[in-house]
Amino acid sequence: MVGSAPLIERTCEFDPVALSAREARAFVRGLLQETGHPEWVEACDLAVSEVVTNALLHAHTRIEVTARLNGDGLRVEVRDHNPALPSPRSYDHQATTGRGMELVAAVTSSFGVQSLGAEGKIVWFCIGGTEGASAEELLDQWDDEGWGDEAIPTGPSSVTVLLECMPATLWLAARQHHDALLREVTFYWAEHLRDDSARDLMLADEARTIISGTLDRVLAAAREKGDTVTPLPPGHPSPMPDVPVDLNLELSVRPEQARAFAVLQDVLDAAERLAVADLLLMRPGLPEIVAVRDWACQQVIAQLGGSPPSPWSGAHDDRFTVAVHDRDEPDALTWDSRLVTEATVGAVAADEANRIVAVSRSLADEVGWKVSDLVGRRVVTLVPHRHREAHVAGFSRHLTTGEAHLLGVPLDLPVLRADGSEVICTFLIEQVEAGGAPVYVAWITPVAAT
């Protein structure tokens, strides 16, 4: 609390819709301007935006904003009616989400969370007053307090669900894509007044939090012990964090939460359809991204129903090499494919669906495929099974965040031939524009067969 008894206190309630973030900013800004504190407006605008938006995205309930102003400073409290506490999420530096509380810490003198049990929670921050802690100290406090560790309450009825052979690298990329999709579909549904969206989104976020929170704690422990490896061969730049080689993830889930995992699948399916129709900013997920979340959700539902665990079968399944989904229907690409098709060296071009759109005869001959048979298949056709999940994860993260660690960097990687043998090749990947859509061209020079 800033100072002693508040001189002015005002409260306003908002619906869980996108417009509420702007209205909440205006509500608090009006108090500051009215009382002669313009020096706090900029920081307060940012902090209010982040905290209210987090409530919109993750609580999906009505929101109460209370501003208390006294001689020392301002305290803002944002209350929602979802008991799940916020938790920091581990994203890379180019992610499009996951930095809200870092921003709040950077512009406030203190902040925190107060649980109201089943009645919800309050996220608060203070601006002004005495010198506060640094942003790092505030975020360390967040971790030390363990906020979010028990975001979804467990109890005596909880059941242990095993996600056997969970592909951590692929799941982290999938989670980043899911989170971006859920963020966008939240605002899309709010704009289009879907009546049942708030309840669906609350349940979807509940299921997502169970898996993500558990995985983050397990990965942190594994990294502390040194029980992780890099997904790519040593010496290659990788946007992906080190992960355990074999991961069996144990979740603590209550039987009634099976519905939350079914809803998470339904909501993400709806978001994927909107993305296919170009109604969201996000691209649709790659087939492996969809498959791994379906597997995880279905495992929880099945095991809560009494079925034994069924391990992740891996992304090496041939079903992932052929583009068969509506999302993979080719768009009209306005580019000169002769750059690849008439190349006298190894070359392959792929679109945003990770589908091969052109290949040079030199490369086709090297890998034992006909040019006509390769075009239309997905790039994973040429990726050895052991590297497919890392490839899909890296490409998915690129589509989600725009990060481009591997573009323009020479790489030595194996290429899978049609007969199952491999050839080590030097890659140089570049991105070219094709009527506003990117095409990824890889120049490939064989080095040695294996």
Structure description:
The longest helix is centred in the middle third of the chain and has 29 residues. About 4% of the residues have low confidence. The chain is 39% helix and 19% strand. α6 packs across α7. A hairpin with a 3-residue loop joins β2 and β3. The chain has three domains: 138 residues, Heat Shock Protein 90 (2-Layer Sandwich); 156 residues; 122 residues, PAS domain (Beta-Lactamase, 2-Layer Sandwich). By secondary structure, the protein is α+β, with helices and mostly antiparallel strands. Strands 1-2-3-5-4 form a five-stranded antiparallel beta sheet, with helices on one face. It has a five-stranded antiparallel beta sheet with strand order 9-8-12-11-10.
